[in-house]
């Protein structure tokens, strides 16, 4: 018969001997756990402080323009099925460091690149319409940021409106000539754009033919190249090395580069997670001016995430159909009825007919 061991002898004395000392390790353990917890709390608080500092720094980079107040009620009606329409400008100053990029001696900043990006309902695809900078338009009466006003004027070169009156007037002009309500405004400063491209490690582009432009300083052989910031600026500015040497010739390059840049931004998730890489996000936000509806890191990130379903490689790029002006062949005017058909399709969020994509002024056939 087997008996259960009794708790006597050495075992009992061992428990008794250690019993008085057992509280010491447990006490040290509790103190260690408290210090670990306190340390963790300090780390969390410190990380939160750094996170707030980073957020504040990036948030403060973004410059906002109150487009709604500046334009007032004199705007096209927002249709319930019109999707999202964003006016994107590339503003370019040729002063300071930019003057070293073989860009000419032009005073002030101008909107060298203008795109109306239309995102249909569902946000799975997009259309980008380039407005040639040399297009003659009727500029509506506008208010400047200092409160003064400028009257309406006919036959004004489109890219001069930005420097003469300001971004709100560019938005108003685009709305007047298109009948399309702009939901947002995004401006990219080309000097900041150069630093952004360098920060993301360059942008890869494919060049179907050699480009040698003594004016911009760009020299590329046919093939695929990864362009740094300086080369990217030269690429979007080049006009004499391709097509007929006019502004129309480089629009195709600008559209191509925009898609390649958007693909790189999407791949690195810069809009979906702007704090993911502070250096890159810093350059991105510093290069941006937006309407007040997007002028915060939170709003910009939310808008970026809402566009995640769009693949830049499937984006359709169109140049506003234009014809050479009969008075000044160095300028162009909207070609009709093509332009009206194009804007109507965007306004009603419908398919753009092929007849609305043909431009009498070809610019060397690059667009």
Structure description:
With 367 residues, this protein is α+β, with helices and mostly antiparallel strands. It contains eleven helices and 17 strands. The termini are far apart.
Mind describing the biggest β-sheet? Answer: 7 strands, mixed
Multimerization state: single chain
- Give the strand content: 15-25%
User: What shape does the CA trace take?
Assistant: globular
If you compute it from the alpha carbons, what radius of gyration comes out, rounded to the nearest whole angstrom?
30 Å
Assign a percent range to the helix content. 25-40%
Distance between the termini: 101 Å
Number of strands: 17
Give the rounded overall mean pLDDT: 79
**What is the H/E string?**
HHEHEEEEEEEHHEHEEEEHHHEHEEEH
- Overall structural class, as computed from helix and strand content, comes to alpha+beta
Unreliable segments (pLDDT under 50, ≥5 consecutive)?
A: 1-23, 43-50, 94-98, 101-107
Number of H- or I-type helical stretches: 11
| Spatial order of the strands forming the largest sheet | 1-14-9-2-3-4-15
Question: How would you concisely characterize the structure shown here?
Answer:
The chain is α+β, with helices and mostly antiparallel strands and 367 residues long.
Topology:
Blueprint: H1 10-19, H2 23-61, E1 63-65, H3 67-71, E2 84-93, E3 109-119, E4 127-130, E5 136-139, E6 142-143, E7 149-150, E8 153-157, H4 160-164, H5 167-178, E9 184-189, H6 190-199, E10 203-207, E11 211-213, E12 218-220, E13 223-227, H7 229-237, H8 247-268, H9 278-286, E14 288-291, H10 297-306, E15 316-319, E16 322-324, E17 332-334, H11 338-347
Helix pairs in contact: 2-9, 6-7, 6-9, 7-8
């Amino acid at each position: 018969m087997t008996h259960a061991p009794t708790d006597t002898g050495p075992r009992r004395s061992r428990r008794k001997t250690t019993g008085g000392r057992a509280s010491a390790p447990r006490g040290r353990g509790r103190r260690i756990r408290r210090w670990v917890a306190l340390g963790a709390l300090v780390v969390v608080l410190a990380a939160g402080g750094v996170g707030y500092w980073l957020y504040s720094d990036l948030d403060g980079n973004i410059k906002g323009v109150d487009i709604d107040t500046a334009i007032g009620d004199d705007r096209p009606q927002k249709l319930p099925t019109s999707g999202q329409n964003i006016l994107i400008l590339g503003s370019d100053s040729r002063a300071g460091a930019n003057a070293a990029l073989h860009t000419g001696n032009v005073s002030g900043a101008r909107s060298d690149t203008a795109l109306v990006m239309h995102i249909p309902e569902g946000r799975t695809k997009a259309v980008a319409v380039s407005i040639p900078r040399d297009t003659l338009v009727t500029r509506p009466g506008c208010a400047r940021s200092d409160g003064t006003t400028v009257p309406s004027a006919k036959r004004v070169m489109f890219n001069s409106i930005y420097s003469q009156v300001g971004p709100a007037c560019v938005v108003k002009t685009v709305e007047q000539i298109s009948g399309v309500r702009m939901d947002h405004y995004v401006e990219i400063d080309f000097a900041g754009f150069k630093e952004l491209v360098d920060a993301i490690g360059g942008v890869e582009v494919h060049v179907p033919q050699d480009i040698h432009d003594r004016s911009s300083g760009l020299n590329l052989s046919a093939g695929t190249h990864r362009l740094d910031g300086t080369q990217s600026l030269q690429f979007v500015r080049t006009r004499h090395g391709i097509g007929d040497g006019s502004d129309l010739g480089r629009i195709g390059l600008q559209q191509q580069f925009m898609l390649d840049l958007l693909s790189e931004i999407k791949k690195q998730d810069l809009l979906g997670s702007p704090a993911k890489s502070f250096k890159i996000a810093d350059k991105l936000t510093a290069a941006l001016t937006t309407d007040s509806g997007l002028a915060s890191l939170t709003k910009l990130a939310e808008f970026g995430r809402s566009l995640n379903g769009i693949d830049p490689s499937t984006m359709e790029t169109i140049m506003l159909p234009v014809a050479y002006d009969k008075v000044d062949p160095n300028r162009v005017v909207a070609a009709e009825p093509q332009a009206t058909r194009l804007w109507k399709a965007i306004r009603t969020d419908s398919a753009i007919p092929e007849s609305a994509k043909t431009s009498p002024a070809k610019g060397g056939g690059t667009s």
